[in-house]
Write a structure and sequence with these properties.
two-stranded antiparallel ribbon, about 90 residues
Length: about 90
């Protein structure tokens, strides 16, 4: 929370925030597109392409997906433990 407060985000987060290496705060669809561009490949292409859509419209879609994600994909009581091969991908 201290990091969020240092960027004038006072209340408990209700959306996704990304703080870039340039100390820029991104939220909602812009944050997701930024993360997609870092993944590279198809995700990067789709992120660049999605920037054509005006942000207010992207954010409406982001909120709609966020509101319905548990209904579509379910909610689990615990997180999946990564395999040994996957663990090497983490710091």
């Amino acid at each position: 929370m201290a990091l969020l407060r240092s960027h004038n985000i006072i209340e408990a987060p209700t959306t996704v925030y990304v703080i870039t290496a340039q100390n820029t705060v991104l939220e909602e669809s812009t944050a997701i597109l930024y993360l997609g561009s870092l993944l590279g490949g198809w995700w990067k292409f789709m992120s660049v392409l999605a920037h054509i859509v005006p942000r207010p419209l992207r954010d409406v879609v982001y909120r709609w997906v966020a509101k319905n994600r548990y209904r579509w994909f379910g909610k689990r009581e615990s997180c999946r433990v990564p395999t040994e091969a996957e663990r090497r991908l983490f710091l």
